[in-house]
Design goal:
single chain, 387 residues, alpha/beta, Lyase, Ornithine Decarboxylase, Chain A, domain 1, TIM Barrel, 2 domains, 8-stranded mixed sheet, 8-stranded parallel sheet, 10 helices
């Protein structure tokens, strides 16, 4: 089935988006910034004691940065290029965290010289670079988590370290003149299992206790990363449910002695605000009696839909066409056989869908423009409009 508008947007909201989209040539992304503002307010209301550090990588548009800056957000930055953009929007360095654990020493110095004093780490080599290039800064160690099998877009293996290494890093940070400030984790993007936070927080609690009891180090912060879901096809709990359970986990582990809490939302902040508008380029069958049509569209893996890789995320797709449905394979326009969006998971689209018709991809405000290739096959990066 194609998506139902009312399951994802208020009718008047989608009518506004569609009226705007009708004036522009595909492919492009339309982002309703009022939805982002609402998502920020909802998160702050659900976690009143937490500091929000928006993960800029999800959507680095200046329109998004300025909106969140004015609402009081902080920012999680992954590179000097993101830093320059955020600073150019008038964000003060005290509202910035260098959350990437993989960074050059010269980039650490770049952040430090511009006033940033909060750095993530997960290795001794990186920590020593921070000590040299950003002396006296606050550092937090990122630990590995196990909740990745229930996340639609896992973030395991590449980032984080074991509990024992995190302990060693915080001790070393103190010895190097840095401030051992806290522990961070990420349960995986689009995490649908609330229990993943429970397991991660239990690990964090053990690190806090061991450092305090055995080494006299009192950590002050827990960075719980992101992971809160967007509204895709797969069902998830409401944000309020996540918040209620996670705060219960925190109270069970830390009681009244709750440290500073940081959240790094990306997907949950901007995904629902975006509608990607595409056009059908070609419809064909591979053989006379093929059971499935192939629907080729003018956007694909290399122009914003990379999270269809391994069919990890399943976007809601809407079309104006009505009538009898047939399961199809959906593919992008480029000369690369990897540019097939959905082949195993079959979307049912109307039999009367024709070349030139538009498909509207809901919940595409996150990780679309920022993943879009610069010039593969000569196609330009995905255009985006903010309304």
């Amino acid at each position: 089935m194609t998506a139902k508008i009312e399951d994802y947007y208020a009718p008047e909201t989608f009518a506004k988006i569609k009226a705007f989209a009708d004036q522009h040539e595909t492919p492009f992304l339309v982002v309703d910034t009022s939805i982002i503002a609402g998502a920020y307010d909802e998160l702050v209301g659900a976690f009143p004691r937490a500091k929000v550090y928006y993960a800029v990588k999800a959507n680095p548009a200046v329109e998004v940065i300025n909106l969140l800056k004015d609402k009081g957000a902080n920012f999680d930055i992954a590179s000097i290029y993101e830093l320059d953009r955020v600073l150019s929007c008038g964000v003060s360095p005290e509202r910035i965290s260098y959350g990437n654990t993989i960074k050059k020493a010269k980039d650490i110095r770049y952040f430090y010289e511009r006033g940033v004093r909060l750095f993530a780490t997960d290795s001794e080599a990186d920590l020593r670079n921070i000590a040299k290039a950003a002396p006296g800064s606050k550092v937090y160690a990122r630990v590995l988590t196990e909740g990745t099998h229930t996340a639609d877009w896992p973030l395991s293996r590449k980032f984080g370290c074991s509990n024992d290494m995190a302990l060693d890093l915080m001790i070393l940070a103190r010895d190097l003149g840095l401030e051992p400030y806290g522990i961070s984790f990420h349960v995986g993007s689009q995490q649908r299992d609330i229990g993943a936070w429970d397991a991660a927080l239990a690990k964090v609690k053990s690190i806090f206790d061991r450092l305090k009891d055995e080494d006299g180090i009192t950590l002050k912060m827990i960075n719980m990363g992101g992971g809160f879901p967007g509204n895709y096809i797969m069902r998830t709990n409401e944000l309020r449910t996540y918040a209620t359970e996670i705060q219960r986990f925190l109270e069970e582990d830390f009681g009244d002695d709750l440290p500073e809490i940081i959240l790094e939302p990306g997907r949950s902040m901007v995904a629902n605000a975006g509608v990607l508008v595409s056009e059908v380029v070609l419809i064909s069958r591979k053989a006379k009696h093929s059971l499935h049509r192939w629907v080729y569209i003018d956007v694909g893996k290399f122009s914003g839909l990379i999270e269809t890789m391994d069919e990890a995320l399943k976007y809601p797709i809407y079309t104006d066409k009505k009538g009898e449905l047939e399961e199809v394979v959906i593919a992008g326009p480029t000369c690369d056989s990897a540019d097939i969006l959905y082949e195993d998971y079959k979307y049912a689209l109307p039999l009367n869908l024709a070349i030139g018709d538009r498909l509207y991809w809901f919940t595409t405000g996150a990780y679309t423009t920022s993943y879009s290739a610069v010039e593969f096959n000569g196609f330009p990066p995905l255009m985006a409009y903010y309304i």
